[in-house]
Amino acid sequence: MITKNKRSGKISAKPNEKFNMDAFTKKYNLKKKIPKKFWIGLFAIILLVIGAIVTIVVVSNLNASHDVPTDNTSSADNNEKPKEPKEKPSPEPEKTVSDDELSIQPITSISSSNPTIKYGRLMLINPNFMVDSNFIAARRTELISLSSTYGISELHSYNGDNLIEKEAGEKLNQMLADYTAAYPGHQIQTVSCFRSVGTSCGRLCMPTGASDHHTGLTCDLIDASYGDSLDTDTYDQHLDWQWLKANSYKYGFIDRFPLAWAGGSMAEPMNIDASGSTGLYETWHYRYVGVYAATQIATGVYNNGAYDSLEHYLLARGLVTDLVNGV
Ligand SMILES: [Zn+2]
Question: What top-level class would CATH report for the domain 99-316?
Answer without folding.
Answer: alpha beta
